[in-house]
Design a protein that fits this description.
Length: about 950
């Protein structure tokens, strides 16, 4: 009997297996056709449930044939219930379309805002419908990426590379090979000033990435956009009030692998005086050694505290959905650093190639404290009138300690043998950068929504402070370099430096658009403009404290960490405020435009012209014999543009654009200042002109599925009077050579962009590649043999090279994984930047190039019930170094022990940053 039951049971199982089947399907947005990720699919009869994957797909296996009811639920949509038939085999794939929950028209508008690019499907829709050639990174893509600042997020966009700071973090964006000076940064479509003490471009590492609803990168302009964007525009769209109650918080901690095996060097920020003795006591005050707090000369070396990263965001609507409020707070406290080896060469008029004469071994330790606060309040009087007020404040406080051991070889190219001159230079630097932006905006509709009037009043301020930066240098001679046990002598002055600059912007914008009533086609005519008043103040002062006696008081590696007992006297007791870097400047910009937007089922055309008038000037507060103590210039440019989209079908289109744009010099660049940096002298150029560029774009765009895309584009830029920094002789002072900006004829820049995104169930791929080719011709010093004396005589020759900062090859590859049922989501992201010019030399074929590099980052997240999630992020997994080199070498460099010559190139600098890790907890609540 037992055997019979066993046979019957086995037969039953085999029969059930024979008739078991599976079904597949997709869940889409009924209005847009976008895939809906994370929707719950429930089968009533079988009791099974699952969630839709990255492409909106779902699958059930092991089902019995017959009728069943499917329930599909998602928080943003009405529940769908439908009866389906499950066949024994070949059950067709199901497609279910969800509709929004029942809402008033006003609520639908709000939903459109909240869902305007905060997830991948809506980001693809924005790219497809955009007038400009653009790319969008959604809030969700940012959240699950390895990046915690906007600077690192933007590198994932096609055609974008980043310039990093001394600790390896991204700082500035380079769009399509155009240096950071050619790009514009916006917050919610409004330009923000830069806290940079030299230039007008905005450091993107100020902004925590979790403040964003989406990141937009515009690669073409329309007439209603500001024209100072030859390279493109980075627009940070901040989070807006949601449809319903929303709360999110995350808290994370981490560590830099760099500090697993070494200590973190620091000094007390409380010892930094925010104002110099000149500011505290007046211009006639004679400072003494007692006026300078010695805390900046007292260093500590110990393990750093763990990193801390946190964010809280709250949003809701009140008063029957008329009033919307969102408030966000972000804080980051990070410990970063790098190890840098820098080789100094002696390229000059008599040396045909670089000879390495000095080595600098530098350790950077930096504490970054990043704060971001933003809030937005919007009030809807009715369907036609709305007011909103947005405020944002970001602050980045850096405390950096740099230790440098400088070795002068003195003819002995192997420092492990023989004597070498050694100098120990330690610098403490506190830098605080901040931006405030306040924007009051109105949106009004008249004539049955045919006439739209928008206006904005903007108050922005950017501030940069570097108080009491301190540098001390001690000398020593030693027999064995490897032991580093030597007496140190303070022969050089200790320097204290104060720098500060403030940009205050007051601006007004207005736009008026009228929809012309037509039977079939759409035509909108618009006009508008802006007025901006920018005021800049710049302050610079420094004091030199010379040693009274050169005493061998310290021993490196033993008691060299505290220099507070130095016996010093102030050699310039009234300071050095009387210099060209203490000035006031202003810039008044007036703009107006006229634009048309025509659209039918096949084609869309947007065109018009923009006028921008610029009045820029400066005044040195302490001219001190300068030839141009005051300066001003006024110019007006007419800037046409035309954008066209041709719809090949519902999924593919051609997108073409032409626009003319300009690039204004920064204040620092036109003020005739002179300042000594670490390696060379810099000088402004009062004759510097603005640059103009004609820009062309053509892109094929395919959106085969709601979350997928394939983009293939060509671009070309012709730049008149491009601005490049080069070493140039001072025409007034004769033989002096300065690193200064100049205009150099006409430059050309063209390239190809490919962008691909594809999701298949749980897996996804994001990939892009950009090839860029640019050419500019600038004068360089060279040498020719004198037929009479047989000496090398200096001459000037033109050299054609790529634009500064332009890499020929840029690529990104991200491998994505998402299991909506189990709550796992992960990403492995690689970024490649090819070789590019880092610094332009005054000598022919002696430019400093950055070696191409790959950076690999990763992130992972596990979701739990009730809105909880655990996440981890890892950066710079390969610990890829930043390397600078000169093409070519000198045979003498082969004698250096470090073997810095490879493949005919000479290594000049190598920086290593180490890996960084973060582990955190996130909570999200959506009503």
């Amino acid at each position: 009997m037992k055997n019979v039951l066993t046979v019957l049971l086995a037969s039953s199982i085999s029969i059930s297996a024979a008739y078991a089947t599976k079904i597949k399907g997709k869940v889409l947005d009924g209005q847009t056709g976008e895939a809906i990720v994370g929707a719950t699919v429930f089968l009533e009869q079988s009791g099974l449930s699952t969630k839709t994957q990255l492409d909106g797909s779902f699958e059930f296996k092991g089902l019995s044939a017959g009728m069943d009811k499917v329930h599909i639920r998602h928080m943003a949509y009405a529940e769908l219930v439908r009866e389906i038939e499950i066949k024994k085999e070949n059950t067709p794939h199901f497609t279910f379309q969800l509709t929004s929950s029942e809402q008033t028209l006003m609520e639908v508008t709000i939903k459109g805002q909240r869902n305007g690019g905060d997830d991948d499907p809506s980001a693809r829709r924005l790219e497809k419908n955009a007038s400009q050639v653009m790319n969008v990174v959604s809030a969700r893509a940012i959240e699950i990426s390895p990046d915690i600042t906007v600077a690192n997020v933007v590198q994932r966009v096609s055609g974008v590379s980043i310039e990093r700071n001394s600790n390896g973090e991204g700082q500035y964006a380079i769009l399509r090979g155009m240096d950071k000076r050619y790009n514009t940064t916006l917050v919610n479509g409004v330009k923000v000033p830069s806290p940079d003490n030299k230039y007008r471009y905005v450091p993107l590492d100020l902004f925590p990435s979790d403040m964003l609803e989406r990141l937009e990168v515009y690669k073409s302009l329309t007439p209603n956009m500001e024209a100072d964007a030859i390279g493109g525009v980075v627009n940070m769209v901040m989070k807006s009030a949601p449809r319903k109650l929303f709360f999110q918080a995350n808290l994370a901690t981490g560590y830099s692998q760099r500090y697993f095996n070494r200590d973190f060097g620091s000094f007390s920020s409380g010892a930094v005086s925010s104002k110099s003795p000149y500011e505290l006591h007046g211009k006639n005050y004679n400072a003494t050694d007692a006026d300078f707090d010695k805390g900046t000369l007292d260093y500590t070396y110990k393990k750093p505290m763990p990193d801390l990263v946190g964010n809280v965001t709250f949003g809701n609507r009140y008063l029957n959905d008329k009033l919307g409020v969102i408030l966000g707070l972000s804080y980051q406290n990070l410990y970063r650093g790098s190890h840098s080896i820098f080789y100094k060469s002696s390229v000059n008029n008599t040396n045909p190639n670089a000879i390495i004469t000095e080595k600098s071994d530098r350790q950077y330790d930096e504490q970054q404290q990043r704060l971001g606060v933003h809030n937005k309040i919007d009030y809807r009087f009715n369907a036609n009138h709305r007011l909103s007020f947005y405020q944002m404040y970001v602050n980045l406080n850096n405390l950096q300690l740099r230790d440098a051991v400088n070795t002068i070889y003195n003819g002995q190219y192997d420092p492990s043998i023989g004597k070498s001159e050694l100098t120990y230079v330690t610098r403490t630097r506190k830098t605080e950068q901040q931006i405030y932006n306040g924007n009051l905006q109105g949106d009004h509709h008249f004539l049955d929504n045919r006439l739209n009037f928008r206006w904005s009043g903007v108050l922005s301020s950017a501030r940069n402070e570097l108080p009491q930066n301190t540098t001390i240098s001690l000398d020593g001679i030693e027999e064995n370099f490897q032991r580093r046990r030597t007496s140190l002598v303070n022969r050089s002055p200790v320097t204290y430096r104060w720098e500060r600059n403030t940009d205050d912007d007051r601006a007004g914008y207005w736009d008026l658009a009228y929809k012309v009533p037509l039977a079939k086609n759409k035509l909108e005519l618009s006009t508008g403009g802006l007025y901006r008043d920018k005021q800049r103040s710049s302050f610079y002062n420094n004091y030199n404290l010379s040693p009274i006696a050169s005493e061998a008081k310290y021993q490196y590696g033993v008691d060299y960490q505290d220099y507070t007992d130095l016996n010093l006297t102030v050699s310039n007791p009234t300071g050095a405020v009387r210099n060209p870097l203490t000035y006031d400047a202003s810039e008044k910009t007036t703009a107006a435009y006229g634009m048309f937007n025509y659209e039918n089922d096949i084609i869309q055309m947007i065109g018009g012209i923009r006028m921008e008038r610029t009045n820029q000037g400066y005044k040195l507060l302490f001219p001190d014999g300068e030839e141009r103590p005051e300066g001003s210039r006024t110019y007006t440019e007419w800037l046409p543009s035309l954008t066209m989209k041709y719809h090949l079908d519902s999924k593919q289109q051609l997108h073409g654009a032409y626009y003319r744009a300009l690039n204004r010099p920064g204040f620092y660049e036109v003020v005739p200042s002179r300042v000594l940096n670490e390696e060379f002298w810099e000088r402004g150029n009062a004759d510097l002109k603005h640059a103009l560029a004609d820009n062309f774009d053509l892109r094929y765009e395919l959106f085969p599925e709601p979350s997928s895309q394939f983009l293939a584009g060509l671009f070309y830029k012709r730049i008149k009077n491009p601005i490049e920094y080069t070493f140039q002789p001072d025409e007034i002072r004769g033989q002096d050579v300065y690193y200064m900006p100049g205009n150099f004829g006409t430059a050309n820049n063209f390239g190809v962009e490919l962008d691909f995104i594809k999701y298949i169930q749980k897996f996804g791929v994001k990939a892009n590649y950009t090839y860029t080719h640019s050419r500019i011709t600038t004068p360089k010093k060279s040498r020719v043999i004198n037929e009479v004396t047989q000496d090398l005589d200096p001459i000037l020759m033109d050299q054609t090279r790529p634009l500064h900062g332009q890499a020929a090859h840029i690529a990104n590859l991200s491998l994505l994984y998402k299991d909506a049922n189990k709550g796992w989501e992960g990403q492995l992201a690689g970024s490649y930047t090819g070789s590019r010019i880092n610094s332009v030399s005054e000598f022919l074929n002696a430019d400093l190039w950055q070696k191409g590099f790959i950076q690999l980052d990763a992130s992972i997240e596990k979701k739990f019930k009730a809105g909880w999630a655990v996440f981890a992020k890892a950066n710079n997994l390969l610990n890829t170094p930043m390397e600078l080199y000169i093409k070519g070498t000198n045979p003498e460099n082969d004698k250096i022990a470090e073997k810095i010559v490879k493949g005919g190139n000479t290594l000049i600098r190598k920086d290593l940053y180490g890996q960084n890790y973060i582990l955190g907890l996130r909570y999200s609540f959506k009503k």
